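This is your field. Have a critical look at both lines of this record:
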Amino acid sequence: MKQTLRAVYLALLAGVAGCAQTPAGCQVATLGTLPVLNATGSPIVEVTLNGQKAAMIVDTGASVSIVSRKAAHDYKLTALSGDVSIQGVGGLVQSSLFQVPSMGLGSAKARNVVLVDTPRVFGYINTVPVVGLFGGDFLKQYEVVFDLPAHTINLYQINGCSSPTPMWDGPVSSLSFQRIGRSHIEVPLELNGHKIDAVLDSGSSMTVILPRQAHHAGVHEEQLKTDVSFPSRGIDRNVLQVRLHRFEQLKVGEEVFINPVLAVGAMQTEGEALLGADFLRHNRVWVSNQNEKIYIQRLVPPPRKDPTFEPEMMQP
């Protein structure tokens, strides 16, 4: 599988769209701008599978790239021998491997892309089937730039640039991350002054805190029982019940968010929390796999009221 994936990355590099407008000596190869099709939740981008239109979630929290079992059949993907185990919210799931002879993404085409199947069905967006997701095995080859307020994601490869964010103007803060496992990104957070390690997970619509970490941050079970509860579903189709709690403060690197509403639930994760798509939806976030740093540009800086961790269901 590793050799096949390497061939995919080389095929993508051969099809990049060229260089963005940058300072002299700075080269930025790009797959082009990927329009994000949805305005809330995890970002979804348009792709083609064997020439047929489809859509996929961009999921930094997934170790591998995934296709639904139904889509593998409908798009006539090639079944490969062997299987793998993937982590869902309820535990490990055994999955089969499929190959896409031709995948279109942005201005590039990839050949013989390997995807792991899941029993989950992802539904539709604008009548286009959502067939699966791009995981960390794919994304870690690039500088991944989430500009979800502008409804775009860019995948870059950068060389010879003095600035780590050569296309951005204005104030930018940064924090270093660690790679855990094959492709997960772990970032340090502070919740009510308590330090926790979180996996950056654009596939999670909300930031989720483990109950024991909420307890360490001063929030007890009796308080959580009075909070709003709702179900959350993972790639394994298991349902996780989470509660929405308003904390005093969340710190992401140098950025401080006051009174954030975060989900609390006992999910399976390599970290102590998931930093979800709610963080990405209202800020520009540059994930530099080259520098192992995350660069953040807040579009609603303090003291203005920041909607980052304010779910629509909690708004008046």
Q: What stands out?
A: The two ends are 50 Å apart (CA to CA). The longest strand covers residues 91-105.
